[in-house]
Design brief:
Elements (H helix, E strand, L loop, with lengths): L4 H30 L3 H28 L3 H12 L3 H23 L1
Helix pairs in contact: 1-2, 1-4, 2-3, 3-4
């Protein structure tokens, strides 16, 4: 099943949020308390890739749904706050996805 632009953005947003929390809550403490930098290397790399995908899919969703530029700013701010992408999904993306699904169902 192929996801819509908003569906892809939601999926990447959740994965990016998880990777950020794992980086901050697990990998960083292991690095500094356990003197082991390997988890930060791997989790940080994965988080970086997901962050880039978050930006790309965010702009694709913005273009597809004709969102105002302020949504790009909100999405960026959500991505730099721990758990921000989860809140952004709950407050905005979930509703946009439901609207998008309703439009497809009517067609």
């Amino acid at each position: 099943m192929r996801l819509s632009p908003v569906g892809r953005f939601r999926a990447i947003a959740i994965l990016e949020g998880i990777s950020f929390l794992v980086l901050l809550g697990i990998a960083m403490p292991i690095k500094y308390a356990g003197d082991n930098p390997k988890p930060v290397l791997y989790v940080g790399w994965a988080h970086g890739v997901l962050y880039i995908l978050y930006a790309i899919t965010g702009f694709q969703a913005m273009a597809a749904r004709h969102w105002p530029a302020r949504e790009a700013v909100r999405g960026f701010l959500a991505s730099i706050l721990p758990a921000g992408t989860f809140v952004y999904d709950w407050v905005f993306l979930r509703k946009e996805y439901e609207k998008e699904s309703a439009i497809k169902a009517e067609a």
